């Protein structure tokens, strides 16, 4: 039984962080996790680098589109690319992701049409993609609620007999992403309870980006967030979330534990939200430029770039191709958002229920007739009665 | 199945083996509602391998009301799941199981315990089909023993139906008889939509005839589905609209009124969402008077919705304003005075008299 006082830095301590790439891009050995990163050859690291660069481009374009009035809101993942791409690349095709709302990098790694993510932020629908197509559930905006959906989904995977078969193409894991703020929610504690007692094949992936909008992690916890999980019977690991190699390695291990029947794992990826909470936020009110500068020097993309250059794995031709791909991607994002069109007002009555509901149907019919009353004899709308 | 833990197995071996399940009864039987619900779930579990029950104490104990008695022994711990004591977690994981293709039937132990799960029910369960543009189906049933009259301590006698009926995406139903309980629980499990299934716990042990061999009508579409009210007693002077525990009260009132020369028609609403206004309106157009009775507080209760819709649809047929009888705008009172709070025979007949005298 531990009775020790919380660490001096509380939940922001560097103690116990798994790191395989230093901020200077130097690969360092780790007795436990080197094996899990061994499969990352130059080609796979370049694939991760590409996805991190494209994720940041997406972030930049979407932020600009919001500033131009094309999106109502946008939540950046700036600075969290390593946590998202490292973990996203560790997933198998049959795995299922339950994201929060900032997991654009994971979506990219799962192969989603990225502009579908922006339909929510433009206000044309609440979730514009098929969760089954890429094993990527809709965004969840109520903090922490989806960690229970992931746990229940993983309990279904168990009942489907897709855990511990030994067949790597069938054994299935579920991963759910949430932030430091979410760990204060009861639902996250309940997800730990349910996943633990059921030994559900789920990875609870916490991106500790140090802020829940304006509140630092010290307002959520006195101890490192990963320290909470063992009390629920869930093993946990703290990883440098700006280190894509280490994030990949710890996630691979956690996913493997889940798939083989070893139960849940809590991963705390310690990172930093370099941008604002959303485009409506103003971080200058609650943090210093010195702190931001400190973390800018730990930029996860720069860290991998330096590493690849040092090891001779970043040829100029690759960089040129990636720059061109990024530009084309940016153009695509801008054009696709502007072409999204306006939803029909009648669409609000669609899919409220799976089978017709008398009240919805009568309101739908009334609204159609009301709208029709504005149409003049020439078939054009009169713009209202008054 | 793969999730039996070593520890559970050890605990199981310490107990005597459960008796083998009795064969499923046949024919028309006189059963209490609790047994009718039990047999309805038993049939659903037998017919649909994706159906499963989840809740607190529903396994070996059979539920605090014994509604799931025997089902753990028959179907095992993966399909009759004793969950951790956390309502949000129960409903949240039920959502996840539904997303994986299962049909979870959740038991909330008492009405007053549903609120820890309120976010999961109203914000997640109710809206996911809509948010996903119909791509995600959520066939989850939330069973809630509701209503009072059993002399319980606080938080064990409430009627929260209006809170759920106000949320688009949920269906809210309540059976009033063992026969309806047997049919409606199976329809709720078969429905592709989330269903809040309110069981009048004060009527759990009242018996009625249940035809166990009748074919199950489809959950939606057709007069015997989950979406329709039913005239359960014909009358000519006043329509009394009731559901769940107050249907029996309304029938007793009709009996008493008949002795005094007043003819009451009783409509069992059966479904609070959707509201079957057509069946109620047709009745009120015949009688010209309407009284709605429920245990929930009158203020903003489902009776207010019935009154508003009947006023709109039957304005020129009405001989009196639609009157409401129900609980007061107080917390549910202590057990010793709960029968002064609950709408009983006298309060209902008083409202009938006022409607007739208008």
Q: Describe it for me?
A:
The complex is a heterodimer of chains A (386) and B (358). Chain A is α/β, with parallel strands linked by helices and 386 residues long. Chain A folds into two domains: 10-338, Rossmann fold, CATH 3.40.50.970; 344-386, no CATH class. In chain A, 40% of the residues lie in helices and 8% in strands. Chain A has 13 helices and seven strands. Chain A has helices spanning 34-37, 42-67, 81-89, 104-109, 117-122, 131-134, 145-159, 186-198, 244-259, 289-296, 300-310, 316-338, 358-372, and strands at 96-98, 174-179, 202-208, 211-212, 215-216, 236-240, 265-270. In chain A, strands 1-2-3-7-6 form a five-stranded parallel sheet, with helices on both faces. A two-stranded antiparallel ribbon of chain A has the order 4-5. The relative contact order of chain A is 0.16. The mean pLDDT of chain A is 95. By secondary structure, chain B is an alpha/beta fold. Chain B has two domains: 25-211, Thiamin diphosphate (ThDP)-binding fold, Pyr/PP domains (Rossmann fold, 3-Layer(aba) Sandwich), CATH 3.40.50.970; 230-357, Rossmann fold. In chain B, 35% of the residues lie in helices and 19% in strands. Chain B is built from 13 helices and 14 strands. In chain B, the strands form three sheets. Chain B has a seven-stranded mixed sheet, sandwiched between helices. In chain B, strands 9-11-10-13-14 form a five-stranded mixed sheet, with helices on both faces. Chain B has a two-stranded antiparallel sheet with strand order 1-8. In chain B, helix 2 (33-47) runs parallel beside helix 8 (178-190) and helix 10 (277-287) crosses helix 11. Chains A and B meet through helix 7, helix 8 and helix 13 of A and helix 4, helix 5 and helix 6 of B. Chain B: Keywords: Oxidoreductase. Chain B: It comes from Cellulomonas phragmiteti. Chain B: Residues 31-206 form the Transketolase-like pyrimidine-binding domain. Chain B: InterPro entries: THDP-binding (IPR029061), Transketo_C/PFOR_II (IPR009014), Transketolase-like_Pyr-bd (IPR005475), Transketolase_C (IPR033248). Chain B: Its EC number is 1.2.4.4. Chain A: InterPro entries: Alpha-ketoacid_DH_E1_comp, DH_E1, PdhA/BkdA, THDP-binding.
